[in-house]
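Risk register update: the risk of archive-format incompatibility is retired. Evidence:
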Amino acid sequence: MGKKKILVILLLVCLSTILIAQNIDNYDYRPAPENLRSRKWFKNAKFGMFIHWGVYSVLGDGEWVMEHQEIKKDDYEKLTKFFNPTKFNAEKWVSLAKEAGMKYITITTKHHDGFCVFNSDLTNYDIVDSTPYGKDIIKELAEECHKQGIKLFFYYSQLDWHHNDYYPRGRTGKHTGRPEEGDWNNYIDYMNGQLEELLTNYGDVAGIWFDGYWDKKDANWRLKETYSLIHELQPDALIGSNHHEKPNPGEDIQMFEKGLPGQSPMQAEENAGLGNLPYETCETINKSWGFDLQDNNFKSKEKLVGYLVESAGYNSNLLLNVGPMPNGEIQKEFRRRLKKIGNWIDQYGETIYGTRGGPAKPQNWGVTTQKEDKFYIHLLDPKGKSILLPKIDKEINSIQTFDQNKKVSYTQTKHGIVIKIPEKAKEKIDAVLEVETK
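Archived output:
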């Protein structure tokens, strides 16, 4: 190949990259009033349920089983004949989320394997057309959420290991036996078509939770077109993308996978790209997102409550995951922990719901949250006999224990406020102090 030809190809690649970037960077997105109200609601909600569920649950080896076991597309499709969730009960799922103190649910409508747990006219590879169950669980779930006052978000994977037109391949999905050809724009049309179905067939949708962009960061995802479609169909719906980068124009929330804002283990650029959008961090109860038969690494109630409190202290929501079994039941280990969290929230929810990150940055001993003229000190891991609260702008009027209203002694110093740790504070998951300011 001649040098001139190589230069021409390089110039075309550079130009293509620039155009791809401009596709979203030039998006002059101005959120509608409905959207801004949704953002405020979201920041107040603080706690949601994540649900990873699909045909992969049949194999009991997590949601990435198709990739990890290098299962061919034609073989993987056979799983649909075994996916018959006769124990699925939308009322029980939503009631469990509500009992746990969760304000919204985010469910996988299509994961990376391409299988849809909703009824799509654009493919037969969905729960209605290809499984013995034959019913649209998203419809049932949406109706129950609306009935019980729980908002519903739809997770949608931009990555697709099943669709032939997801081509050229990205970082994953290279062993599925698909033809080495395809029409990328046709795939994006398919994706946008399914998003239109999700946003028109199930009533009010709180938002779209995207994943998989990271598989092909340099591809022309036509984000401006996709985001405009969503905002046009449902102006109050929030858009977020789990791409591990700073938010793109058109996105309404910023998500962090298994890491608090600024502390994410996924990518340094995600931590550096903290913006002014509402935050959400997602975490698992064991180690897996999708049902894993042998994953018994369940986090304790204390650990999970602590993570909820820390999320609030970092001015973030917590989206806590369950991976239902193939029969449609949420396993007892998840249910028990969620109910225990709910019991804790019944007592301390005031210090979490509707709050923002407190006046002091997170410390080794815990975090602070604030609401109006009060803020709360959450002693998650107090050491010694006292803690030092860094200097704050507000003047303190009083400090007392939240649950017993007992006064707590404190001393103002040039370094901050030295607060005596109440007796038995170390015996609690989270000893909360209520601080009233002038």
